[in-house]
Amino acid sequence: MGRDRARDTEGGANRRLSAEEASPGRFRWIVDGHNAIFAVPEWEELQVAGQRREARHGLEESLEAFGRAVGARITVVYDGNHQDRNPDAVSWPHLRTEYSFPPEEADDRIRFLAERSVRDGEHPVVVTSDRRTLAATLAPGARSMDVRHFFRRVHARALFVPEKRSVDGLDEIERHFLSRSPFAEDRREAEQRGSGTGSPGGGDESGPGGPDDMGGGSNAPV
Fold first, then answer.
1. CATH classification of the domain holding 108
2. Looking at the structure, do residues 141 and 166 belong to the same domain, yes or no?
3. Are residues 146 and 167 located together in one domain of the fold?
4. Domain region containing 186
5. Are 81 and 89 in contact (CB under 8 A)?
6. Quick check: helix, strand or coil at residue 42?
7. What is the pLDDT along the chain (222 residues), one digit of tens a residue?
8. What burial letters (b/e) apply to 114-146, b meaning 16+ CB within 10 Å?
9. Which one of 59, 91, 159, 189 has the minimum C-beta count within 10 Å?
10. Omega before 208 cis (within 30°)?
């Protein structure tokens, strides 16, 4: 059975994985930076409090870890200013940041990067919750994925080590990654599982990141 046809059997589920979930290293990931920050409460709080650099750094460190785990390249795009080069731009082994240059907006840069990636024979996935004005306007051949779906289904899976899983539930490694999730509810679950008070099912699958968030297809939210 190919990796794209793998199934998710965690928590009693029997769900076919999308190609992005099963083989994330095959894809070229482009992240809508500020959109991702505002989708994660912890980073949003930093951004609103004026700690913008800290919010960006939290997102970037998380994505570098993902890229290292799957061997993928990630580009994060932010709205920029009239500086020729933003001093906060980073270039790490698996992640680089780009800032738009007005009147260009971040969405314009993301569309350009996705279209260029398709022309280069890559398989770009744009991570954004902006389905109407960005995801729906990507070039044919480019895919999009909701931010919360990415962090819960793709990012978390990439950092999980299945061969170390305990038969009785979450072991120290899985709890470690849950405890570092950008979502507070995931961190609470790690604490509950560690103390033996968590529910066996591991959460409400009908909420964000569950089956209702699933999609697929070229130029369509995943």
1. 3.40.50.1010
2. no
3. no
4. 161-195
5. no
6. helix
7. 334 445 554 443 456 889 999 999 999 999 999 999 999 999 999 999 999 999 999 999 999 999 999 999 999 999 998 887 888 899 999 999 999 999 999 999 999 999 999 999 999 999 999 999 999 999 999 999 999 999 988 998 887 755 444 444 445 655 665 666 677 777 777 777 666 554 433 333 333 333 333 334 445 445
8. bbebbeeebbbbbbbbbeeebbeebbebbbbbb
9. 91
10. no
Do residues 135 and 128 lie in contact, with contact meaning Cβ atoms separated by under 8 Å? yes
Residue 1 counted as domain residue: no
Total number of domains constituting the chain: 2
Residue 122 lies in a domain: yes
Q: Which of 124, 150, 176 is the last residue of a domain?
A: 150
Is the pTM here over 0.85, yes or no?
Answer: no
